[in-house]
Structures are given as C-alpha cells and as structure tokens.
Amino acid sequence: MTCMKAQSLITPFINNKLNLKEIEEFLDHISSCSVCKEELEVYYALLTAMRQLNEDKNLSDNYVLELSGKIERAQERIIHVKYTYYRKKAILFLSIFLLAILIGFRYAYNSEENENIITESDFHLRESFRDERNVYIELQLQQYLEGQENIGAVTNP
Questions:
Q1: Is residue 135 part of a domain?
Q2: Taking the complete model, does pTM exceed 0.70, yes or no?
Q3: If you ran DSSP here, which 8-state letter would residue 19 be given?
Q4: CA–CA dist 139, 133 (Å, integer)
Q5: What gap in Å lies between CA 20 and CA 75, rounded to an integer?
Q6: Do the domain assignments include residue 139?
Q7: What is the domain count for the chain?
Q8: Of the candidates 30, 19, 34, 11, the residue with the CA atom closest to the CA atom of residue 71
Q9: C-beta separation of 42 from 18 below 8 A
Q10: pLDDT one-digit tens code per residue, 88-143
Q11: Distance between CA 105 and CA 70 in Å, rounded?
Q12: Which of 104, 96, 99, 45 is nearest to 70 (CA)?
C-alpha cells in the first residue's frame, strides 16, 4: 500500500468505516511507515477531540494510548476472523474426509458380503451369435449351390 492510499484511509479507519481487508492492509502499512503513523496519531487526536467537544464530553488525556488500543482491537479482530475462517475450513475438510472414509468402509463391507464370484458361465453371446450366423450362411450357400445344380441339370438333359 502506498502512503497516499494509507493517508486516504486514516479518517475511515478512525470512523470504523473500513472492511477487514482494508484494515489489515492499512495496519500493515502503518506499522512499517512512521510518517503515516504520525499522520494517523494527529488525525485521531483532532477528530476524537472534535467529537468529544461536540458531544460535550471531557477531553481525553492520552489520545496516543486510545489509538494504540483501537489498533490493538482491530488486530485482534483480524486474527479472530482469520482463526474462525481457517477453523471452519479445517472442520469442513475433516468432515468430508471422514464421510469419504465412512462411505469407503461401507462400500468395502457391502461388496465383501454380496460378492458373487463367477467361475463358469453358459452365457456366450458372441460365440453363440457367430455360430448361428455361420449356420445360416452355410444353409443359404447350400441352397444356392443346389439351385445351381438344378439349373444345370435342367439345361443339360
């Protein structure tokens, strides 16, 4: 994140208008850039003091301490959201894994129980079809040859 982008996010951060991704990027930049962190401290002190004056509250004694508390709470929130996200992913993964194992065991148990081993079969579709066809062709050939012999016998008396 650039300093210009970070500085544009200072006011939305103070007013709690950023989403978690923006907060995370903003806090990463603030932790590594002293100029932007000073800018955040100044804006926080000004905006918080103005808000307190508008609401007729007593002015705070230590804005830097309040800001560090706000930053710490934001970091804890980010960690909590990430932890929850990865925990949900792990639970989903484990659930799918256990379901796959359960289905695998059930399938293996049922297949062993109902296993029907065929050692010999009377069903020979290809061979029986081929045999029937050969017999049919041979009969037609014999009829044709007999017909040729009959034609030859009639023409040669």
A1: no
A2: no
A3: -
A4: 10
A5: 10
A6: no
A7: 1
A8: 30
A9: no
A10: 999 999 999 999 988 887 777 665 556 666 667 666 655 666 667 777 788 888 88
A11: 52
A12: 45
